[in-house]
Amino acid sequence: MENLVPKARQIEFHRLKLAKKQELTKNTFSLEFEIPSELASQYDFEAGQYITLKFESEGKIIQKDFSMTSAPFEKVITLGIKINSEESFANTLFQNLKVGDEVEVSEPRGRFTLIAKPHEFRTIVAFAGGIGITPILSHLKNILRTEHRTRLFLFYGNRTKKEVAFKQELEELVQKYPDRLEIHYFYSQEKVGNGLFEGRLDAKKVALIINQILQLDDTDEESTIWDAVDAVLICGKGEMIKSIANACYHHGILKKNIHFELFEEFNEDIYPIEKEFPLINDISVDFKLFNNEYSTTLKDNKIKLLQQLLIQKFPVPYSCKSGICGSCECILEEGEVELLENEYLTTKEEASGRILACMSVVLSKKIKVNFDLN
Questions:
Q1: Which residues contact 351 (CB under 8 A, 6 or more apart)?
Q2: φ, ψ at 369 (rounded to 5°)
Q3: Measured in whole angstroms, how far is the alpha carbon of residue 152 from the centre of its chain?
Q4: Closest CA to 233 of 221, 217, 245, 247
Q5: Which domains are present in the chain?
Q6: pLDDT per position as a tens digit, 278-308
Q7: What is the pTM of this model?
Q8: Do 131 and 93 contact (CB within 8 A), yes or no?
Q9: Distances in Å between the alpha carbon of 211 and those of 182, 242, 245?
Q10: What are the tens digits of pLDDT across the range 229-272?
Q11: Which domain of life does the protein's organism represent (predicted)?
């Protein structure tokens, strides 16, 4: 995950020492930070979570989020980072950070997580695109170590073989857990002699994977491996997530069992909106943001709340616009909204009045929300 805008609420940072820096491919590298004993409790984390790095560059303070590749039992913070251009924040980190430097690192957060079930027989399927492997790798290491009855299948897409990040670490996991982990690599810009593994990971590939790889189950001769899937993990670009998530859903996986994480902005809904809403015009909106009070009027409710506030140039925090990252989380203090699909809020949080502005359709003439979550 690599997001640009933090939530309105305060993020806690601590200075951590860089213990290791390693170039992985031509445009990806890893950073490993030590966790001092006095900060151990603040840096307890779950597989799949992320941290924010705060770094000064050319007189400006930049904050960006990066998913961790480390598993909780490793007691370090390890990141996988892709360099998209010479002017990028990632390249600034790569060129300037040296082992021994101290960097401001936020406490871990994020909800691309799974509930541990060490006593159950589970089948988990993961799809990763490019540097989207980072939180998936954290999950693989954690599950293989803590859930001895869980088997995992990873489908990992890259443009070419040379661009596969963490290939050695993944292969070492396969060697260590050959009966529980199976990995298949896909290449969108390289021929490998088998059409199944050429091209992007998308809905069509999911259908082929189900029919050609996740076939007869050795543990149950009357069903397929796909029939036994308990959870799906997806991390990559928005279009990839949208295509694969919908394919998994249409092939029988419940939406609540399909978990995904974006590593860039995405402005579309992951699942189609299947409900029509009554038209409401001239909606009055009051909201609190960064300890400031704002008031505005929405023309109607044809566009979701966050998108309308952004159109009006309000500095509302966001990243994905798809109900995944939680950056636009706020409290509904007055009025009514319909919260569409979201991958972030729990049922308990929804019941307490928390909403995601990017997934909220306004259903009353007036609403009041608090982005400061207090």
A1: none
A2: -130, 155
A3: 19
A4: 245
A5: 13-106 (2.40.30.10), 122-262 (3.40.50.80), 281-370 (3.10.20.30)
A6: 999 999 999 999 899 999 999 999 989 999 9
A7: 0.85
A8: no
A9: 16, 21, 17
A10: 999 999 999 899 999 999 999 999 999 999 998 877 776 778 88
A11: Bacteria
